[in-house]
Amino acid sequence: MIHLASKNRYDKMTYNRCGRSGIKLSALSLGLWHNFGSVDVYDTAKDILFHAFDNGITHYDLANNYGPEPGSAEETFGKVLHRHLKNYRDEMVISTKAGYYMWPGPYGDWGSKKYLVSSLDQSLKRMNLEYVDIFYHHRPDPDTPLEETMAALDQIVRQGKALYIGLSNYSASQMQKAESMLRKMGTTCLIHQPRYNMFDRWVENGLLEVLNKRGVGCIPFSPLAQGLLTDRYLKEIPADSRMAKSHGFLQENAFTDVRKKAIVQLNELAQKRGQSLAQMAIAWLLKDKRITSVLIGASSVEQLYNNLGALGNLHFSVEELQHIEIILKPTLKQ
Ligand SMILES: NC(=O)c1ccc[n+]([C@@H]2O[C@H](COP(=O)([O-])OP(=O)(O)OC[C@H]3O[C@@H](n4cnc5c(N)ncnc54)[C@H](OP(=O)(O)O)[C@@H]3O)[C@@H](O)[C@H]2O)c1
Fold it and tell me: Is the pTM of this model over 0.85?
């Protein structure tokens, strides 16, 4: 059955221009790395997508390997889109990626033209799409010439299989080189997707500046440090959490004593601001105008609504920002 989307969905969201492009993205975007695989409950995945769209989230982020099983998040997304949301395809920005291990042999990993082109063809089939809006190279490849990877991305855009190009996990200097190459070919880089949250600040050492100067958007992933920056981790590891499920992506050694202390202190500050910790962690990223959108994950509709609530208070006083830095200082030394 076709889902009838909320009529006032666009009044509930703010939209930020992506770098110096023509595209605006919702301030929150939804990632399908976890919770949308073949091992997850289809109806929950569907409900999260419906509520996200009904609340003005226009951008949905995938990758070839999201699941588990790898590829199954794209299949779930394709099913929900075609069964229930197909009238709204043109109101969505759908991204996918290739760059991590996807299939055996020398052509299913990293950054060769062979891998990127065939992987995107597979992703389009899994999602039953003619094109994606953004195709990312998922991580830099130290062994493939950058020229080859960028030429593959340029070709993909010229073939109409992707409208825009994105790069993920590239350092500031890699980004400068890649962006210049793409620009010379006539295909600008729309956006960069780095990990960025209160516990992981590497982008502040040059990358954000490069993106800003070059007019490239920025969409931080894991804004909640995969769930650590929420009130679920105030005492112990929650039984049904990503950490407890032990897929290996969020290991117990990330929950250090120093972080535990910081989570409690940050939660107290969030409460004083009238926010949940998750909301404050998202707002803390969006306070920087160089951030186009924050790419969240959610394992339930409740979490999604909690995160959407971040938009209610994006302002921080100087004192609050200083207080946050004091709390985080011991965690940044780890
Ligand atoms: N480019 C890359 O290399 C790369 C890498 C990683 C991710 N990404 C992208 O970024 C997206 C987001 O990453 P992420 O899932 O790590 O983001 P995240 O927002 O940091 O973590 C999401 C997890 O936090 C918990 N959570 C979310 N909202 C909550 C709330 N309000 N209260 C309590 N817990 C809450 C849930 O975990 P529980 O399951 O424990 O409930 C949820 O699955 C991915 O889906 C993917 O699209 C990209």
Answer: yes
